[in-house]
């Protein structure tokens, strides 16, 4: 063996001994590569001959957001062409399984065949678990319909769709193992939502944002655990049969007059937003009507006590100066631990003096359990102060009250509010009162931030 060759091999051996990462098993290296951004994972191919083909067999997690050019303000047309070429190149060079695929920049009808080709390729490899498809084309007659092969994909667990359409009629037993479905601007006419819930036998989480939908939404699902709605154009939401539903979140827009009925959800733990302006609201056997006082019909709904006692976290939305219905609502949740209140400017012109409302209240059983209160849009008006004072004076285990203020609070104003709410006479010695200037990038109002962002 010639001396130069021997020296080269010795150098490679020494380099390998010093490179601890390269000495790891290929399965571990593949796991590491699968966690890297796609650009960084591809670049590892030039490290050495050992790494050259490693990426090509690594489970692929492809998000075309990370493939965008350096200039994010580039027009969508060239950007879309560039993205399509980049994705095509990756698919051609990578031969391993595809676990995650996000196609979000195919916004022109000419790109739909390419998007369908990539989706078909991912399905054929039999390993796609998480898929995101975005179709935001404004070109007439450019609707993107989901391929039938996707509806029958057994490996898919999470699916997010933006602007896509379901083919109709739907085949039986769609998405056999899908656990999470997110729909944004996806039309759901002709009872399509009910069909999705009945045919997706493994579905546990459903998000529906915007999009056209039937006037009456009926929810019956034995497996559903989390349901999120952000809609405007419908008349009634009815939760008929949801034995495993734990979280029900909705935002139906301001100045809304909707009918909401939660009839049977015995495991419900998180509920909101409950609007003071609902035309009619039924929670188990308790019925609220805007024209009448609340009435309780325990005999008609035996599960009432069990269902309402299960709720631990509640969000209420109310107009400024409109808090007359809040005490009646709170009385329905005897085991409440976390209370969120979102205020907004209304158009009703109504005003109630909340001082008399709260002073006349008898003891609430939830005050033995309430641990946190967060008020978004706190403005130091009488409506806010009187409600807050009542909770502070009677909340035995209250730990924290967070006030997300709509205006800047000077130190003098803060001290004045603390005095008005009788903070020194608080029922809980561990109570912390926090003032924060409301900011969109702060998640004090979690988990409802995704519903209230404009």
Automatic annotation (TrEMBL):
It comes from the Eukaryota. Transmembrane segments: none annotated. SMART domains: FBOX. Residues 18-69 form the F-box domain. InterPro entries: F-box-like_dom_sf, F-box_AtFBL13-like, F-box_dom, F-box_dom-containing, FBD, LRR_dom_sf, LRR_FXL15/At3g58940/PEG3-like. This is F-box/RNI-like/FBD-like domains-containing protein.
């Amino acid at each position: 063996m010639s001396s130069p060759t021997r020296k080269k091999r010795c150098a490679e051996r020494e380099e390998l001994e010093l490179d601890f990462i390269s000495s790891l098993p290929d399965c571990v290296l593949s796991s590491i590569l699968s966690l890297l951004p796609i650009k960084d994972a591809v670049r590892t191919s030039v490290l050495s001959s050992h790494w050259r083909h490693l990426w090509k067999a690594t489970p692929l997690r492809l998000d075309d957001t990370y493939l965008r050019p350096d200039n994010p303000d580039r027009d969508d047309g060239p950007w879309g062409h560039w993205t399509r070429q980049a994705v095509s190149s990756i698919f051609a060079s990578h031969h391993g399984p595809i676990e995650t695929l996000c196609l979000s920049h195919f916004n022109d009808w000419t790109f739909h065949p390419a998007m369908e080709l990539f989706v078909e390729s991912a399905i054929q490899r039999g390993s796609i678990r998480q898929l995101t498809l975005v179709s935001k084309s404004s070109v007439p007659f450019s609707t993107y319909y989901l391929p039938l092969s996707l509806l029958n994909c057994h490996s898919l667990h999470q699916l997010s769709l933006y602007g896509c359409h379901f083919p109709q009629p739907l085949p039986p037993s769609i998405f056999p193992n899908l656990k999470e479905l997110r729909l944004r601007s996806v039309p759901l006419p002709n009872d399509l939502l009910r069909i999705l819930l009945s045919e997706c036998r493994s579905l546990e989480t459903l998000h529906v944002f915007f999009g056209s939908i039937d006037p009456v939404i009926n929810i019956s699902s034995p497996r559903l655990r989390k349901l999120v709605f952000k809609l405007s154009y419908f008349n009634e939401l009815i939760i008929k049969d949801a034995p495993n539903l734990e979280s029900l979140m909705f935002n139906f827009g301001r100045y809304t007059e909707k009918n909401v009925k939660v009839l049977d959800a015995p495991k419900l733990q998180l509920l909101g937003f409950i609007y003071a302006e609902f035309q009619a609201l039924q929670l188990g056997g308790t019925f609220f009507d805007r024209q009448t006082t609340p009435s309780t019909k325990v005999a008609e709904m035996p599960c009432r006590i069990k269902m309402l006692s299960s709720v631990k976290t509640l969000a209420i939305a109310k107009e400024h100066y409109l808090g007359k219905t809040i005490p009646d609502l709170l009385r329905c949740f005897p085991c409440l631990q976390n209370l969120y209140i979102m205020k907004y400017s209304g158009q009703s012109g109504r005003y109630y003096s909340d001082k008399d409302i709260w002073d006349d209240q008898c003891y609430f059983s939830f005050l033995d359990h309430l641990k946190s209160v967060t008020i978004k849009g706190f403005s130091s008006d009488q409506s806010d102060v009187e409600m807050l004072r009542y909770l502070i004076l009677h909340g035995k285990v209250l730990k924290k009250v967070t006030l997300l203020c709509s205006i800047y609070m000077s130190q003098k104003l803060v001290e004045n509010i603390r005095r008005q709410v009788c903070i020194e006479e608080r029922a809980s010695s561990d109570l912390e009162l926090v003032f924060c200037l409301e900011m969109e990038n702060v998640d004090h109002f979690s988990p409802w931030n995704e519903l209230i962002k404009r």
